[in-house]
Amino acid sequence: MGDKAVIYGKNLLIEKEDAKDLREGMKVTLMKWGNATITQRVENGDTFELLATIDEADKDYKGTMKLTWICNDPATTFEIKMVEFDHLITKPKVEEEDNIEEIFNRNSRFEEIGIAEGIVKTLSKGCYFQFERRGFYYVDRIALVNQQMVVNFVPDGKTKGMSILSHQVDAAETAKGKPGAGADAAAASSKK
User: Fold this and answer.
1) Could you tell me which of 2, 8, 150, 148 has the C-alpha nearest to residue 70?
2) Which of 12-16, 27-31, 181-185 has the highest mean pLDDT?
3) Which domain covers residue 36, as residue numbers?
4) Are 30 and 90 part of one and the same domain?
5) Where would I find the H helices in 25-124?
6) Are 79 and 72 in contact (CB under 8 A)?
7) Beta strand pairing status for 128-131 and 135-141?
8) In this structure, are 111 and 151 located in the same domain?
9) Integer Cα distance of 180 and 6 in angstroms
10) 59 CB-side CA count, 13 A
11) pLDDT over threshold 80, residue 123
């Protein structure tokens, strides 16, 4: 659906859910770049840093964990608010005898902060786009000097996600007519 510039650098950001299981000696594939071997894992409380060596000549991608990444360059990245919505009613069909107060989902909006490439700032309100491995989003509010960009997740009806990356709303539970597992997923953050 088009081309985009890829910015390479020595300091990369990857999803925390991907990185948490990486250990020294593991070979991974950095998408649109090549293979890398983890040489060191430095933990500091609940945060950690991974050091790796890139081997662009290594073209054996079989059996490696595939990682999406962006260059950690404050001049070309920015924080973005990512919003998901769950069903407002907690059951598949509202019956006449139902008390709306008992079946109304008061926790149907979830938001988290992510880091996006600067090109996302150029999108206009109402645009749809895809974050790789996360899904499609709708630009609800553009970034201005004093306001953060807001994008809304567009559910596709799949009960299985595109990757191990979690969403705030559990599509499998929603398909069964139950509100999503927002409380469980709230511990995961896109700001990695």
Assistant:
1) 8
2) 27-31
3) 12-69
4) no
5) 100-103
6) no
7) antiparallel
8) yes
9) 35
10) 1
11) yes
* Residue 155 predicted with pLDDT over 90: no
Q: Do 155 and 82 sit in the same domain of this protein?
A: yes
In a domain, 130, yes or no: yes
Backbone angles phi, psi at 41, to 5 degrees: -125, 120
List, in sequence order, every residue forming a beta bridge with 154; answer none if it has no partner.
136
CATH of the domain at 143: 2.40.240.10
Instruction: Burial-class residue 80 by CB neighbours within 10 Å (0-12, 13-18, 19+).
Output: buried
Question: Which residue, chain included where needed, has tokens 């896109």?
Answer: 190
Q: What is the Cα–Cα distance from 62 to 81, expressed in whole angstroms?
A: 35
Helix, strand, or coil (residue 176): coil
**Burial zone of 122 (CB within 10 Å; 0-12 exposed, 13-18 middle, 19+ buried):** exposed
**Backbone dihedral angles phi then psi of residue 60, each to the nearest 5 degrees:** -90, 95
| Model pLDDT for residues 34-64, shown as the tens digit of each residue | 999 999 999 888 888 999 999 989 999 999 9
With 90 as the cut, is the pLDDT of residue 5 above it? Answer: no
DSSP tag of 20: T
pLDDT recorded at residue 156 = 77
